[in-house]
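sorry for the late reply, my laptop died twice this morning and i had to redo everyting from scratch. anyway the thing you sent over, i finally got around to it. pasting the sequence first so we're on the same page, its 142 residues, then the predicted structure underneath. double check i copied it right bc i was rushing
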Amino acid sequence: MSEEIIAMGVKLLSDAATADTFVEVPKVLTLPEFGYEADEVEVTHLNSPGGVKEYKSGLKDGVGSTIELSWVPGDTQQEALKLAATSGRVINFQIQWPDPGQTQVQVPLLLKSFKVVTAIGQKVTVSIDVKVAGAAIWDTWA
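ok and here's the structure:
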């Protein structure tokens, strides 16, 4: 039997409405990508072997991504995310996967925008641009 998991049943929770109280965000369509990318620091010197530039890993920077939701006007969690994006707040999110080990990650995300997308003949969605704003904490959920 295959051990891969599919995206059905994955949960996104945030503490946007009340700090340190995580509540599920409703109607999530896509979760944010998260991770880090290190700067390249050139450390080439006059005696670098073979005349080839040398590099070391520098500071890590969180990647940017997007959360997409089906819009539910007036929903408490979506309104809290809109307010957080308007004020440029960093919000803690938890992603919980439905794997046998109950894998969870908590990651702080800077909310950069909250955009309502309305296209003819389509459901109305929300697009929230985010950027990783700190270290991710891997754990399990119960």
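The longest strand covers residues 103-117.
thats about all i looked at so far, will dig more tmrw
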